[in-house]
Design brief:
The protein is mostly helical and 286 residues long. The chain is 74% helix and 1% strand.
Length: 286
């Protein structure tokens, strides 16, 4: 089986190529070649490329969420029916493989009827290898190693570039105890990324999630997700390069706009966002 670095090498080279092309384009537009602004904006353009490429998967995820909402009543009725059947015979589904197989077969049939898919989380999962690849590219930059389209000159340029006093390949631990404002840049970027994540989850994702019928513990977990996502960003910020934080800020800003558009124009049926859309339409027609 190939090692993980070998599996990620094509993506790492692709990330390096996007950064190199974006940087050259920004320099051609007038930015200084070794400036932090040119390299930070190159990372922002990487976000745009990745997120734009994932838009078909995002739309598929929206359709999957709508299909799941339409299928929820039938699936709930199915679970209740089998629960009553097993309870009547004092049986546990885990100890009754025949009943469990029947229930799963009917469940798959209902999901297929409504067009449900298991790939709705693809956009979120796809971000993980991209971040790992960007992390690897920045690690090479910090070590002065050329990587793909980023030759020695571009690596030296990126390695010397700084954003408000913090190198894009630097980490919080590298300057947290030294004079300068590098640590403040990390905290600022982490705070902005965390705020964007919280706003997206709290104002757009949570209202677009159907909580009806969920057990109270699961509903409580859903309500805690906005704060948990923000805390997770801040905690992880101390271990990743500044360039990854720039990626998070740009990516979370994209997500805020994307989820706002979904919640407003394509809300999940049965959610608070769908009720708000219906109320807006009623006001316009009334």
């Amino acid at each position: 089986m190939p090692a993980l670095p070998d599996l990620l090498l094509p993506l790492k080279l692709l990330v390096a190529a996007v950064l190199a092309v974006s940087h050259d384009g920004l320099v051609g537009a007038g930015l200084a070649p070794g400036s932090g602004a040119a390299w930070a904006l190159a990372i922002v353009l990487l976000v745009v490329v990745v997120r734009a490429a994932l838009l078909p998967a995002v739309w598929h995820g929206v359709r999957t969420a709508h299909a799941a909402a339409r299928a929820r009543p039938a699936l709930t009725q199915l679970r209740d029916r089998y629960a009553a059947r097993l309870d009547a015979h004092r049986r546990d589904p885990a100890r009754d493989p025949d009943a469990l197989r029947e229930m799963l077969a009917e469940q798959r049939a209902v999901q297929a009827e409504h067009g449900m898919s298991r790939l709705g989380c693809l956009p979120a999962l796809a971000q993980v290898p991209v971040l790992v690849a960007l992390y690897a590219v920045l690690t090479d930059v910090a070590a002065g190693r050329p990587v793909g389209a980023m030759d020695a000159a571009l690596v030296a340029s990126a390695g010397s570039a700084s954003l408000l006093g913090a190198g894009l390949a630097d980490r919080f631990g590298g300057f947290a105890s030294t004079p300068g404002q590098g640590w403040a840049v990390v905290l600022l970027l982490a705070g902005v990324a965390a705020a964007l994540s919280f706003a997206t989850q709290h104002w757009f994702v949570l209202p677009n999630t159907v909580l009806t019928g969920l057990p109270e513990p699961m509903r409580a977990v859903q309500r805690l997700l906005p704060a948990a996502s923000a805390v997770g960003v801040v905690a992880a910020a101390t271990a990743v390069p500044v360039g990854v934080l720039v990626y998070w800020v740009a990516g979370n800003a994209w997500m805020l706009g994307q989820q706002a558009a979904i919640a407003r124009w394509w809300p999940t049926p049965g959610s608070a966002a769908a009720e708000a859309q219906a109320a807006r339409r009623a006001r316009r027609t009334g």
